[in-house]
Amino acid sequence: MLKTLLCIAAGSGLGGVARYLVGRWVQSLSGAALFPWGTFAVNVAGCFIIGLIYGAIDRGTNIPQDVKIFLTVGFCGGFTTFSTFIHENYMLFDSSEFPALALYAGASFTVGLLLAYAGHWIARSI
């Protein structure tokens, strides 16, 4: 268990640093002050990376469990949790679980947006 946690911690640290560097770099290239191109790029890149990893696993590529945890939960989780969210939605889609997909995607976006609003409102009110 300790080895697994260390793999996650190492991957998360590298993913977080990569998120910061890639996000800032892309945002500086875009020249756009309002649209968050850096975050957008990180989120979609994370989706691509986690798709590659799980696609390789689905194909039968033998990836040791510690490496898989380091890359998915660790690096991709530190890089962007959006990649995990999209992968979970993909799994529901791939399993033809369309009502669950609609509920999960819709509720995550709606509740997340409402709670972000509530957090902003509370922070401004105190």
Automatic annotation (TrEMBL):
Matching entries from InterPro entries are given as: FluC
Q: Name one GO cellular component term.
A: plasma membrane
Write the lineage as a comma-separated list: Bacteria, Pseudomonadati, Bacteroidota, Bacteroidia, Bacteroidales
**What topology does it adopt in the membrane?**
Multi-pass membrane protein
Q: What does this protein do?
A: Fluoride-specific ion channel. Important for reducing fluoride concentration in the cell, thus reducing its toxicity.
Q: What does the UniProt keyword field contain?
A: Cell inner membrane, Cell membrane, Ion channel, Ion transport, Membrane, Metal-binding, Sodium, Transmembrane, Transmembrane helix, Transport
Catalysed conversion reaction:
fluoride(in) = fluoride(out)
Q: Where's it mainly located?
A: membrane
Question: What Pfam families does this protein's entry cite?
Answer: CRCB
The GO annotation for biological process reads: cellular detoxification of fluoride
Record text on activity regulation: Na(+) is not transported, but it plays an essential structural role and its presence is essential for fluoride channel function.
Q: Which HAMAP family match?
A: FluC
Name the chain's protein: Fluoride-specific ion channel FluC
